[in-house]
Design a protein that fits this description.
By secondary structure, the protein is an all-beta fold. It has no helices and eleven strands. The strands form two sheets. Strands 2, 4, 5, 6, 9, 10 and 11 form a seven-stranded mixed β-sheet that branches. A four-stranded antiparallel β-sheet has the order 1-3-8-7, with no helix packed on it. It is globular, with a radius of gyration of 13 Å.
Length: 115
C-alpha cells in the first residue's frame, strides 16, 4: 500500500510563492506518474501538473509559466513550486501517483492566496 504525505501548504498574499512537497512510501514498484491536482470548494478536482519518471511534464493552462513540477526519483518525492500566486489558485492541493495501474491520493493540503 502506497502512502503519500504532503506538506508546504499555507496562506500567502497574491504574487507570493509556495512550494508543496509529497513523499511516497511503501511502493514495491517504481512510480511512473506523479502529479498534483487541486479542488476548489464546489468544483471538480482538476489536474494542475504531472511529471513522468523520465521527467516529461504537463501543466494546466491556468498555471503554465507560474508553477513548476519536479521530482526526485531516489526519494520518491514530487514538488510543486508555485509562483505569482493568484486568489483563484486557492484550493486544496492533492498529490497523486500511479504505481503500475493503481492510483493513490494524498490527504490534501490547503493553499490560500489572499488579495
Amino acid at each position: 500500500q502506497v502512502q503519500l504525505v504532503e506538506s508546504g501548504g499555507g496562506t500567502v498574499q497574491a504574487g507570493g510563492s509556495l512550494r508543496l512537497s509529497c513523499v511516497a512510501s511503501g511502493s514495491r514498484y517504481s512510480i511512473n506518474l506523479m502529479a498534483w491536482y487541486r479542488q476548489i470548494t464546489g468544483k471538480q478536482r482538476e489536474l494542475v501538473a504531472s511529471i513522468t519518471r523520465s521527467g516529461s511534464t504537463n501543466y494546466a493552462d491556468s498555471v503554465q509559466g507560474r508553477f513548476t513540477i519536479s521530482r526526485d526519483n531516489a526519494k520518491n518525492t514530487v514538488y510543486l513550486q508555485m509562483s505569482s500566486l493568484k486568489p483563484e489558485d486557492t484550493a486544496v492541493y492533492y498529490c497523486h501517483v500511479m504505481v503500475v495501474l493503481t492510483k493513490y491520493w494524498g490527504q490534501g493540503t490547503q493553499v490560500t492566496v489572499s488579495s
